[in-house]
């Protein structure tokens, strides 16, 4: 278990629901999947990368909604930047995606 954080520290995270609208496999990486996420009007679309290529292909992500951290500093990934992070479960050494009900509006805040 990681160290305890305060309620205020947790409140620093901006967790939002976003819909993956496009995904691809960058030719410069064997581990990453690149995907574009629609967060609605307030945030718009963002590009993100996850090291899930061994377990998930682009077609498994497109059209589904997930929870993302949207206020992380951008991270250089190859020639681009990852503009956030998808929340996933790690189980038995592999990532498990957690889709959100499709009726949830893109950009909805998770509390």
Automatic annotation (TrEMBL):
<dbReference type="InterPro" id="IPR002547">
    <property type="entry name" value="tRNA-bd_dom"/>
</dbReference>
<dbReference type="InterPro" id="IPR012340">
    <property type="entry name" value="NA-bd_OB-fold"/>
</dbReference>
<keyword id="KW-0030">Aminoacyl-tRNA synthetase</keyword>
<dbReference type="Pfam" id="PF01588">
    <property type="entry name" value="tRNA_bind"/>
</dbReference>
<keyword id="KW-0694">RNA-binding</keyword>
<protein>
    <submittedName>
        <fullName>Methionyl-tRNA synthetase C-terminal region/beta chain</fullName>
    </submittedName>
</protein>
<dbReference type="InterPro" id="IPR051270">
    <property type="entry name" value="Tyrosine-tRNA_ligase_regulator"/>
</dbReference>
<dbReference type="GO" id="GO:0000049">
    <property type="term" value="F:tRNA binding"/>
</dbReference>
<dbReference type="GO" id="GO:0004812">
    <property type="term" value="F:aminoacyl-tRNA ligase activity"/>
</dbReference>
<keyword id="KW-0436">Ligase</keyword>
<feature type="domain" description="TRNA-binding">
    <location>
        <begin position="9"/>
        <end position="111"/>
    </location>
</feature>
<keyword id="KW-0820">tRNA-binding</keyword>
